[in-house]
């Protein structure tokens, strides 16, 4: 994300920081709950933080570049990692996507990709056309799923998952988008169970996913 230069952008950034702090408090509580109740069954996680209880995914409808729809039903049956970003993002998004590619490659060597799914959801539908979105996500992996939708649907989904995004003011004919940098973890039952938080480490994320696949109930 670009440096903040205007009061309007500063307020957006402040909102994101406050949201991140609130999420961190909730996740800290979740870690304490898990430590007390589930440590016997679930080995320590290296990058993931889990919520105290699974959360429902709100009803939503997005669209993939090939014209198909993406709904909560698509997040059932596998461990799904969902990252929100935009293709014009100069740093956080490409770095995160490159890390997730390494995670995917490691899961592939372990024969686990049939139990995992990675989705990139663009929060910049105006610029991220189907062609641009497909090309961007395909660069990292043809197995990754790309989707976007209206601001109404994106706001409903991001808020329901504890994420946030906001577009900055127009500058020199363009704009940037502030967004949460964490990746959401959805279990095979289609419930949100936690987050992967930056800084992301491919080996740690892959190991955590393997742990969840093998031990979580």
Topology overview:
Layout: H1 7-37, E1 48-56, E2 62-63, E3 69-70, E4 79-85, H2 92-109, E5 116-122, H3 130-140, E6 145-147, H4 151-160, E7 165-167, E8 177-179, E9 183-186, E10 191-196, H5 202-215
Parallel strand pairs: 4-5, 5-6
Antiparallel strand pairs: 1-10, 2-3, 4-9, 7-8, 9-10
Helix pairs in contact: 2-5
Choose one word for the global shape: globular
Low-confidence runs (pLDDT<50, min 5 residues)?
1-40
CATH topology: Glutaredoxin
Radius of gyration: 17 Å
| Strand-pairing-aware structural class | alpha+beta
Major sheet description = 6 strands, mixed
Binding site for Cu cation: 89, 93, 179
Domain Thioredoxin: 51-217
GO molecular function: metal ion binding
Disulfide bonds: 89-93
What does this structure look like?
This protein is an alpha+beta fold and 217 residues long. The protein contains five helices and ten strands; from the N terminus they run H-E-E-E-E-H-E-H-E-H-E-E-E-E-H. It has helices spanning 7-37, 92-109, 130-140, 151-160, 202-215; strands spanning 48-56, 62-63, 69-70, 79-85, 116-122, 145-147, 165-167, 177-179, 183-186, 191-196. Strands 1-10-9-4-5-6 form a six-stranded mixed β-sheet. A two-stranded antiparallel sheet has the order 2-3. A two-stranded antiparallel ribbon has the order 7-8. Helix 2 (92-109) links the parallel strand 4 and strand 5 (116-122). Helix 2 (92-109) packs across helix 5. The termini are far apart. The model is unreliable at 1-40 (pLDDT under 50).
